[in-house]
Structures are given as structure tokens and as C-alpha cells.
Amino acid sequence: MRLHPDVSTTDTDDGTVLLNERTGRYWQLNNTGAHVLHRLLDGREPAAIAADLADRYGIEPQQAERDVTAVIERLLGSKLVIS
Known about the structure:
Layout: E1 2-3, E2 7-12, E3 15-20, E4 26-29, H1 31-41, H2 46-57, H3 61-77, E5 81-82
Antiparallel strand pairs: 1-5, 2-3, 3-4
Helix pairs in contact: 1-2, 2-3
């Protein structure tokens, strides 16, 4: 997965801001969403990211998988990333 060519990112204390430079629209990800995005861009598989979140936050693995899937669907649906 990679960023759409028109999208740039800036990390903040609260997560990551993504800007579509063509449309002028921007999105803000909290720290967890930013973690998911950065791991995806590093080439990590969604299942590995979910396992990491489950360990890190002490949540059920199934919940972490649903959360990672939701972030991916939103990123793809908003055309911020390309698979």
C-alpha cells in the first residue's frame, strides 16, 4: 500500500494529518490511525498490525482486526492510499 500521489502527510503530537493537494481536503488520524497508516506504508500486513495493536492496548484480537480493517477502508475510500 502506498500514498496516493496527490497526498502528503505531516505527523503531529496527536497523530497524522493527510492533505490531498489536488482537492485541498485534509484528514486527521489519531495516534492509532497514524500507527496503522505508517505500518501499512512500511509494508506490514494488516493481520500483523492488528496483532501489534491488540498487544499494545490489551484489546481482543478480533476487535483490533476490525479496527485496522476500518482504517484501511476509510483510507482507500477517501483515495488517500492506493493498494
